[in-house]
Design goal:
single chain
């Protein structure tokens, strides 16, 4: 039987681990070939370790195990020129591109008075400018035949979650940018949608945020509680939403804020 995205070529950033790896494997299971991008380097403003080249290679191995082709590129999404060059090379090797998943993201924890300008710049540069750079690298390859841009936002980008204000602001910015692109690119049959997860157990978990919520601002804890009786979703739940938006099942879906949030945004 043919997969739901059989023969499609898809770019994924932040692909070395966590949700990015999950997206890659799920799409490969349904017939996609992948361009897998990650920085594979930690950043001084981020208190948890970022991905490694070994983790990116493992994602590629898991894709190959599904009988699909994976191209890996070690690139910082903040570097638009380098990202565009890497995507162009990957697309040339695969022979085309049908979709992009801007998944790379970072998170800092802090109150309004302890969050630094350096943290702001890093989070916004990765989460928002990096998302734009990903779209900008992908669009030229989609413009003739159409395609799908999927930008991973967050429930925080809709709800205004506190204690990680740069993250919340950047993810809200992804929504505005994506809606603007959805309007501008509709005439070219390019769909642009955002996905909004609740908490997912990945490596993106600064200890400072946990400490703030439990030791200093427990009053804010209910803002992070899901309506459904789970603490966190699983990466596969988000990947299934990504799969739908890449597939032709979503051929007339654009400008959507696709919440996979266990109801956290209705609380």
């Amino acid at each position: 039987m043919r997969g739901r995205v059989e023969g499609k070529r898809v770019l994924i950033t932040g692909a070395a681990r966590g949700m990015g790896r999950s997206h890659a494997v799920r799409l490969a299971q349904e017939g996609a070939d992948l361009i897998l991008v990650d920085i594979c380097e930690s950043l001084p403003e981020i208190e948890y370790p970022l991905s490694t080249t070994e983790e990116l290679a493992e994602t590629a191995r898991l894709v190959n195990a599904q009988g699909r082709h994976a191209i890996t590129k070690v690139v910082d999404v903040r570097d638009g020129n380098a990202l565009t060059a890497a995507v162009d090379e990957g697309v040339e090797e695969l022979g085309g591109l049908e979709a992009s998943v801007a998944n790379a993201g970072v998170l800092t924890g802090g109150t309004w008075d302890t969050t630094t300008a350096e943290q702001w710049r890093t989070v916004v540069d990765v989460n928002l400018i990096g998302c734009w750079n990903t779209c900008r690298a992908a669009i030229p390859h989609l413009i003739e035949r159409g395609g799908s841009l999927i930008n991973i936002s967050s429930s925080a980008g809709l709800k205004g979650s506190p204690l990680h204000t740069p993250y919340t602001a950047s993810k809200a910015g992804v929504v505005g940018m994506s809606k603007a692109l959805a309007n501008e690119l509709a005439a070219a049959n390019i769909r642009v949608n955002t996905v909004h997860p609740t908490g997912v157990p990945t490596g993106m978990q600064p200890a400072s945020l946990h400490s703030l919520l439990h030791d200093k601002r427990a009053d804010l804890g209910p803002i992070f509680q899901n309506a459904l009786p789970i603490v966190m979703a699983e990466a596969i739940d988000i990947s299934n939403a990504v799969l739908f938006l890449v597939s032709d099942e979503a051929r007339y879906v654009t400008g959507l804020e696709f919440k996979v949030d266990a109801g956290v945004t209705i609380r």
